[in-house]
# Entry
Amino acid sequence: MNIWGLDLMGNQVFFLDYNRSVICKANKETGKDEGEDVIHLFNGYGIEFLSESEILTSNQQSLEIFKKQENNWISKRRVVIPKCSTAYSIFYEKESGLVYLSDTENHRIFVIRLFDFSIVKTFEDSNAISRNFGLFVDKRTGLLYVVNNKSKEISIFQ
# Structure
């Protein structure tokens, strides 16, 4: 097992096992895998719940939205992001409808409007955005925090 993406929905924990390219459920109290495969992906990296019935995933060069219909998760939309090669981490800012997507190989963060998948902003810095496996936006300040595993620091963008 090689856990990459992680998100909470209600009283359940979901994680992405990169080795098997599958989203799984974990017990919220113990953190142990419950053995239930929720969604099978192609080279999945990140997951982010948009609602109780929608999951946003990142995989290589694309974003994909899955919608829950009855007991199955169905791919609703998959969009290739131009000039993106390794879409490792995602963060969804519900208030603005923006998705922040890290492109580790190209040292970029894309800010994407969810409703039409248009790129509204790009942060690019080969020193500050290197091996960026996690990101977060502070909704109070608007600051973007990016894990920089190369320098072992957190890079901050405005």
User: Anything to note?
Assistant: The chain has one domain: 3-130. DSSP finds no helices and 15 strands in the chain. The two ends are 35 Å apart (CA to CA).
